[in-house]
Design goal:
The structure is a single chain. It is built from 24 helices and 11 strands. The strands form 3 sheets. Strands 1, 2, 3, 4 and 6 form a 5-stranded antiparallel sheet that branches. It has a 4-stranded mixed sheet with strand order 5-10-9-7. The model is unreliable at 1-13, 16-40 and 520-527 (pLDDT under 50). Helix content is 59%, strand content 7%. Residues 163-421 form the ABC1 atypical kinase-like domain.
Length: 583
């Protein structure tokens, strides 16, 4: 029964459209392993705590002075990591004691009682880890957000850490003058005609100000915090050391070092705003004249490693339903545009925005409205999604992108044999039959208990952690895309987009992506298909199915819009009807 719940839990992560933001709590008991571990030898334990904290403090302070060679901002930022290091080591020691006690209580580390006790330890420590990340900010929030995407991390941690918001208190603009002087060799007042002192937004790595150029154009100026590089180096050093020591805490032997290695690589990219500028321009070029997506233009002469100046764009948050309706934007249309944008990125472009949370997506009415849309929709406007923060992208190699397109096309015609062939290339023979079932919407629910058990046995899966290992066998790029699309899917579902909308949109772009070469142009040679997809009749059937879905969608959409317009007209006539009745 536990194994069945494990499979369902993993399947839910792939297809559920509701945010996992509800905390999982366990009632404390006298047998709490955390309390039991801290009672004996209290003096000895806290003496070791003091030794560890002193060593971390001294090493961090010495590193800050040595690495930054007297740079005041960097030294200040580096020394600011000392309190964070102390809090982190203190949490680690408490966690080590709790997990050690649990292992001593269950030497064999097996059985339902052990699983329940281990879940209790996870749940008792997760809230304090959440508070640690919230108060530490910066690298800690980035690390926690990355950890929530790894299924091998206990779900008690993931459910709480998913609540983290990348939001911090901005620093004063006067503290940013040094950054402008170093990057652009001019003071702030010489670069902009106007510069709002209050930050429009502030995140863990930078803050954004609204400004006006001497030409009169309004721009957004993204400025990296002074000395951030030193703080990031110090925090990553502490976290990497603890990650190495933490391997023995988790019974499955899961290694956390690779998370820190990926975080280090991501931060190296995010801290160079020239990379973000290049990514932004690449997406602008890829979307071309697409009327539903837009990207702010970069002002290159006012941008550098730590400063990014770009076109200012107004819009409402993708999660603000009241603001959307006030702007005459139907939420479901916004959800479909969002799905369409990211489906095009993954299936056609192979270049996917890596940070698709709601803070990086604004919505506004499209600049060029379709007159026929306004006529059929009863006055609703067509939405346009503004994509912000281009620091992180996931590149799908062309062969992987084509395999992903073929798998989705196979899902459309329920060709599971072709999907299994593709899965063999992705994860190998073991698990190749189970993977398509997990990835296909509704696939797991259509199986009997016997089939689920057979597939689980064929994949060599026993627990939830084992199911996570199947996902980790996928190419890392595809795992990242699954994480991104899960975030987009949740937002689109909250806006009213349905499962049929997602299937239709994915099928359209997957079929189109199968005929795109590495260079992004239609191939003059015949595309390579496998399995049932090699049949032209099958591909025509897929196209007919997609056409029928699109036609049905637009007919239903037009009917609903016409009905809403008719009801609005009746409400508009109500005052006249009341006057006639009174007369």
């Amino acid at each position: 029964m536990l194994k069945g719940r494990a499979i369902k839990g993993f399947y839910g992560l792939l297809h559920r459209s509701t945010p996992c933001n509800q905390a999982h709590s366990h009632a404390s008991s006298p047998n709490d392993p955390t309390a039991a571990a801290l009672q004996p030898n209290r003096a000895k334990v806290w003496w070791r705590v003091a030794q560890g904290l002193g060593a971390v403090t001294a090493a961090t302070a010495a590193g800050a002075f040595y690495v930054n060679e007297g740079d005041p901002a960097s030294i200040k930022a580096g020394l600011g990591s000392v309190p964070r290091a102390i809090s982190t080591v203190a949490w680690y020691i408490r966690a080590a004691a709790a997990y050690r006690a649990c292992k001593l209580q269950f030497p064999e580390q097996a059985g339902q009682d052990y699983q329940d006790a281990l879940a209790g330890v996870h749940a008792s420590l997760a809230p304090s880890l959440l508070r640690l990340c919230e108060t530490s900010g910066g690298v800690y929030i980035k690390a926690a957000q990355l950890a929530t995407t790894v299924s091998a991390v206990p779900q008690e941690y993931r459910k709480l850490l998913e609540k983290l918001q990348d939001d911090v208190t901005p620093c004063h603009p006067a503290d940013l003058n040094t950054v402008f002087q170093q990057e652009l060799q001019q003071p702030l007042e010489a670069l902009f005609a106007e510069f709002e002192q209050k930050a429009h937004a502030a995140a863990s790595l930078a803050q954004v100000h609204r400004a006006k150029l001497w030409t009169g154009e309004t721009v957004a100026v993204k400025v990296q915090y002074p000395g951030l590089g030193a703080a990031v180096t110090a925090d990553l050093t502490v976290l990497t050391g603890l990650a190495r020591a933490a391997e023995w805490l988790f019974p499955d032997g899961f290694r956390f070092e690779w998370i820190l290695a990926e975080l280090r690589q991501n931060l190296r990219t995010e801290l160079d705003f020239r990379v973000e500028a290049a990514n932004s321009e690449r997406l602008r070029s890829a979307i071309g004249s697409h009327t539903s997506i837009t990207v702010p233009a970069v002002v290159p002469e006012l941008s550098g490693v730590k400063i990014l100046t770009m076109q200012w764009m107004e819009g409402c948050k993708v999660t603000d339903l009241e603001a959307l309706r006030a702007a005459k934007l139907r939420p479901r249309d916004v959800g479909n545009v969002l799905l369409d944008a990211f489906a095009r990125m993954q299936y056609v472009e192979g270049w996917v925005h890596g940070d698709a949370h709601s803070g990086n997506l604004l919505v506004r009415p499209a600049q060029h409205q379709r007159w026929w849309w306004r006529l059929l929709s009863g006055g609703w406007q067509w939405p346009e999604v503004v994509v912000l923060d281009h620091g992180l992208y996931v590149h799908l190699p062309d062969r992987l992108r084509l395999d992903w397109c073929r798998m989705w096309a196979a899902f459309v015609v329920n060709d599971m044999s072709t999907a299994t062939q593709i899965a063999q290339r992705l994860v190998g023979e073991q698990g190749a039959e189970l993977l398509p079932v997990l990835l296909k919407p509704g696939g797991l629910g259509s199986l009997s208990k016997e089939d689920r058990k057979r597939l689980r046995s064929q994949a060599g899966l026993e627990t939830l952690g084992d199911v996570g290992k199947l996902l980790e066998r996928l190419p890392r790029e595809l795992t990242s895309v699954l994480r991104i699309t899960a975030v987009v899917r949740t937002q689109a579902a909250a806006l009213g987009a349905s499962l049929s909308d997602r299937l239709r949109i994915n099928a359209v772009h997957a079929l189109r992506g199968m005929a795109i070469t590495r260079e992004g142009q239609p191939d003059s040679a015949r595309p390579v298909y496998i399995g049932d997809l090699s049949s032209r009749a099958t591909r025509l059937r897929i196209q007919a199915y997609i056409w029928a879905m699109r036609t049905g969608f637009w007919v239903c959409h037009a009917a609903v819009s016409a009905w809403e317009g008719f009801r609005a007209g009746l409400r508009w006539l109500n005052p006249f009807r009341r006057r006639l009745k009174a007369a």
